[in-house]
Amino acid sequence: MRKAFITLTALALLAGACQQNSQTTSNTNDSTGDGKVAKIEVPVPVFQADSAYAYTARQVAFGPRIPNTPAQEKCASWLISSFRNWADTVYVQRTTVTGPKGEKLPCINIIASFNPAAKQRVLLLAHWDTRPWADEDAFDKTKKLDGADDGASGVAVLMEVARQFRKQKPDAGVDILLVDVEDYGAKSDENSFCLGTQYWAKNPHIPGYKANYGILLDMVGGRGTQFYMEGSSKQYAGAQMKMFWDVANKLGYSDLFRYENNGAFITDDHIAVNTIANIPTFDIIALQANNDFAPHWHTTNDNMDVIDRKTLQAVGQTLLQVIYTQPFSY
After folding, report:
1. What is the DSSP letter of 179?
2. pTM to 2 decimals?
3. In the record, which residues are listed under signal peptide (predicted)?
4. Where residue 249 sits, what CATH number does that domain have?
5. Segments forming the whole domain that contains residue 124
6. Does 160 fall in a domain?
């Protein structure tokens, strides 16, 4: 992905910023200028983990979704076709971005909108591409990887959520953003990651697009996964993140959604959404208590063997609960 951890000194400074920001984001206004919406009493669809698991496997079956490969085009076509069956409107951004070595990379961002007329909106996003090499692998750092968790799992959860939206439309406006060329970056340059998101943040699918807040899903299907409250997410969208964690814990997923501070600050797609698009966005990402990534991160072990339906269920059901009953109650 490329996600870099900041130094302890910078971490301490940002921790202070987090505390200040969480106080300011808990007021009655949001990024659209509208007030909060009360909790809604409606039946919440049941997230189908088997469906999300199948969507994960289908992406993996295309092969590594690396920019400038046949798998990229084939998977993109399938994703676009699938979302056109569910969404009110689907936008496709095709552009070319520049990789860390100056290489020109085709980039395909896909945006699916639900309730497009609704002023109050939630942005849900995940990256769908695969890192071209397993550079964290212990044996062969040049091998390709499946990206079952890092990429496919987040997309799969959003696909199942979209399928449920089609069956029972939520009151809130929702936009699902699948971003490309997230994982092509070089460790020496944080800005070389998240290129599709950087492009979208500067060139949104609708000029002047705004959402109340965003939720990024990244590595949300691994067995034994835990989700800690990542530092930059707390800084920019602390109230929204706490709302999500509170709902997850009330649903019985306290073993996954942890309140402890593990000290991690990560460069991920949410950074560009926060700093360029100015939409408060938090990251749901697999982390360990020692602030490291899951052991299969950027290795050949990131395959279907690590995908757990229970993890997909926890993330997906919490997401549905938030969207249908209290999307703006933070």
Report:
1. E
2. 0.90
3. 1-22
4. 3.40.630.10
5. 8-16+44-325
6. yes
Does residue 27 form part of some domain?
A: no
Give the whole-angstrom CA distance, residue 67 versus residue 64.
9
* Count of domains for the chain: 1
Residue type, 52: A
In a domain, 307, yes or no: yes
Order of strands, sheet of 281-285, starting from the edge strand that comes earlier in the sequence = 89-98, 104-114, 173-179, 121-127, 213-218, 281-285
What Å distances lie between residue 227 and 121, 140, 185, 327, CA to CA?
24, 28, 24, 20
Examine residue 28 and state whether it is found in any structural domain, yes or no.
no
CA angle 274, 312, 163 (to 5 degrees): 80
Which residues have CB under 8 Å from 246's CB, separation 6+?
A: none
pLDDT, one tens digit for every residue, the chain (330 residues): 554 444 333 333 333 333 333 333 333 344 454 445 557 788 999 999 999 999 999 999 999 999 999 999 999 999 999 999 999 999 999 999 999 999 999 999 999 999 999 999 999 999 999 999 999 999 999 999 999 999 999 999 999 999 999 999 999 999 999 999 999 999 999 999 999 999 999 999 999 999 999 999 999 999 999 999 999 999 999 999 999 999 999 999 999 999 998 999 999 999 999 999 999 999 999 999 999 999 999 999 999 999 999 999 999 999 999 999 999 999
Residue ranges in 251-296 assigned as alpha helix (H): 269-275
Main-chain dihedrals φ then ψ at residue 53, nearest 5 degrees: -60, -45
- Going through the chain in order, the beta strands assigned E by DSSP cover 89-98, 104-114, 121-127, 173-179, 213-218, 281-285
